[in-house]
Amino acid sequence: MDYQSRRNHLQERLQRRKIDAVLISQPDNRRYLSGFTARDHGIEESSGALLVTTTGKTWLLTDSRYQLQAEEETGLPVLVYRKGLVRLLARLLATVDCQRFAFESHYTLHSVALAYAELAEKRRIALIPLKDLVEAQRQVKSETELSLIRHAVSLNEAVFTRIYSGLSAGMSETEVAMAIETAMHEAGAEGHSFATIVAAGSNSARPHAVPTTHRIKSSEPITIDMGLILNGYCSDMTRSFTLGPADDRYLTIHRIVRAAQLAGLAAIRPGIPMNYVDRAARKVIEEAGYGRYFGHSLGHGVGLAVHEAPSLSPRNRRILKAGMVVTVEPGIYIPGWGGVRLENMAVVRDGGAELLNHDATDLDL
Questions:
Q1: CA nearest neighbour of 73 among 83, 81, 62
Q2: What is the pTM of this model?
Q3: What does each C-alpha distance from 343 to 108, 240, 305 come to in angstroms?
Q4: Which residue, among 343, 341, 321, has the nearest Cα to 332 in the 3D structure?
Q5: CA 236/CA 329 separation, integer angstroms
Q6: Would you tell me how many other CB atoms lie within 10 Å of the CB of residue 150?
Q7: N- to C-terminal Cα separation, the chain
Q8: Which DSSP letter does residue 107 get?
Q9: How crowded is residue 214: how many other Cβ atoms within 10 Å of its Cβ?
Q10: pLDDT tens digits for 133-164?
Q11: Domains in the chain and their CATH numbers?
């Protein structure tokens, strides 16, 4: 990864906004700009922050627990804060003659923001809260990133194929979820990109169901939503099916959802508003009479985070760009019966959508 080019691009954007320095604390943004892979133990316990200035100077600020890792992974000057981040920050900002200092307001505790405000007042610095600064830069993936994402998708599919072949009626949702996540680790994944969803019967009417002790019946709807992390990049896919013969109701709904997914994929290309893609898929479900059973957005971006920009939502009028990676995941969820969701990942290309999923599990009915 060319982290220096990424930082150069960020510095150019800061200059246009007349910002002298920015503190990057969100873990995925920090990694994107530096290669530092440490994770936070929640927003309240950071593993470090990246101070990027428009003068070209960049420091990685961390505590002693992560010093060696930061030095080995980034090649940047690493400074250890022994008396707190804010005190070290005050010293550094003075060395770069900072007049306008920005921070990531969406990943900063209120108490920390108050400490920044106090620092700014003492130093007579303008404090600029920013949101989605680096996230916007991360939306368009390089070919190197796309290659890593393809490998994550391929491994995710291999894990699913392995588990799918061993499924049988009587297994519990939790048993299947645990088997999936164990298989991910055995296959070499760094971990799951989100808690695996296994939902059967009426539980599958909950888009983000939590696996339970419910034992799967042979012909009831089953939804598995799973993703893993490989080389830092995420995958995300959803499969819906039945273990035994599907009844006419399931067959009808499954086919409607697949038709909606194909309509959404067909609408993807650069220059198209994101809500147009959502509308293309949603129209299929609405015309089939199931519109009120599809409540969430059509899809989201995937990269270092499993849920990131852009969003294929009914409200998002922003434009798709080549190199973006999105999920296309329409669903129909009927309380008391169950649900069907089908999710694949795609790259926005000049000629349309490049489908990243190539599973051969014969789940279309």
A1: 62
A2: 0.94
A3: 32, 9, 17
A4: 341
A5: 10
A6: 19
A7: 42
A8: G
A9: 17
A10: 999 999 999 999 999 999 999 999 999 999 99
A11: 3-138 (3.40.350.10), 143-355 (3.90.230.10)
